[in-house]
Amino acid sequence: MMTKQFPKGFLWGGATAANQFEGGYNEGGKGLNLADVLPGGKGRLKLLAQTGFDFEIDHSKYTYPNHEGIDFYHRYKEDIALFAEMGFKVFRLSIAWSRIFPNGDELEPNEAGLAFYDRVFDELHKHGIEPLVTIAHYETPLHLIKEYGGWRNRKLIEFFDRYVRAIFTRYKDKVKYWLTFNEINGATHMPLLGLGFSPEKEETRLQDSFQGLHHQFVASAKAVKLGHEIIPESQIGCMLIYAPVYSYDSNPENVMHAKREGDIFNFLCGDVQVRGEYPYFADRYFDENNVTLDIEEGDLEIIKEGTVDFISFSYYMSRTDKKIKTPEEIGEGNLIGGVKNPFLKASDWGWEIDPVGLRVSLNELYGRYQKPLMVVENGLGAYDKVEEDGSINDDYRIEYLREHIEQMGEAVEDGVDLLGYTSWGCIDLVSASSGEYSKRYGFIYVDKHDDGSGTLERKRKKSFFWYKDVISSNGKNL
Ligand code: BG6
């Protein structure tokens, strides 16, 4: 099958996050972070929110899959060689903040942590792969959560600044592409992951989340400015979780509701980070939801001066919105709300599959901002089966990715400036929402299971060979 032409130099690759694949959670002087106290299994986010952060690390009732991840910490050479075999141009990974500052509030960074990422970046460059680094991906140091209350506390801006300065200075010759906060706009839905706290009551969720977000906006803008100073050729992006919001029907009440939900979810954070100011609709929304932000003098100037160079986003699903919905209409797997869309099928985890929604997203984002875009997460979490001969025939994953890449090609043809595509979990890793190994996204299978068993051996899936061909043909062979 032939698709549209992708730009020359298009950055094909894959994406990961430190806490979901590195393992080595207590090696090299690393401190604990949020993910280290997340137990395995569905409902883990709720569980942690209920119990607070006083989980004992070796609590016998729970498993902690993020502790071992898939052991990239020790196997990075083998994994990077596999990425290179697929022809990756770029590899997205995050730096675990608590490897660099184990508690988060130290004055000096941890040399062993810095040295680890030196080795990883050197290995990537050896294979001609450009690193794309997320600075904060759901892994706030635990000490900052317990002692300071996470991003609710303004002091985190200062700690983050120290961390960012340390990594920009250290990796200035090795890393050109950076992202500040992963899925920043997901924070109001999942404050625990993004902001490192659980609002005490539903009534204060929005107030607390937006205050935490305001601190992240300032921290992110400072990072962009600093990055440009330390690494003049750097490209620093924001990272959104994007879901186009469709109206359930043509009832104007629903249409207006969907429009505003989309504005708040998709564009509020984007406008602050890309345009450098809160959007026109923010005041009314904050008033109606009892949100009063504590904005200090100088904050808005910092935000204005630290706008991003490009916009990156994750895309898994669209959201179908209805002003008044019954409980039966709610899509169960849809983490970001909405009702079931009768035109869409869903994954085994209930995530609705909507390739055209990716073209919609790309057009909406480019239409609003006219800045280069990058799709830095997209993929299908599925159960894989290893056949007796050792093969893994993941045709469902190939179909999912093919349809999404086709729609990206359409968006490029529409005129969207698209820099690259890194599919999520290019190697199987621990799921963020459920802590499962069995929710697999990879082109590379990892022999590791929910009960903790497995050899960690890597195997190429059918999609591995397919993606290799996609990359070598620059998206022509799908
Ligand atoms: C994104 C996150 O929300 O979705 C990743 O940035 C996450 O960390 C990915 O892994 C897929 O979600 P899940 O819950 O299937 O791992």
TrEMBL record:
UniProt key word Magnesium: no
SUPFAM superfamilies per UniProt: (Trans)glycosidases
Record keywords: Glycosidase, Hydrolase
The keyword Hydrolase is assigned to this record: yes
GO biological process, one term: carbohydrate catabolic process
GO molecular function: beta-glucosidase activity
GO CC annotation terms, alphabetical: cytosol
Recorded family membership: Belongs to the glycosyl hydrolase 1 family.
NCBIfam families for this protein: PRK09593.1, PRK09852.1
Protein name in UniProt: 6-phospho-beta-glucosidase
Organism the protein comes from: Saliterribacillus persicus
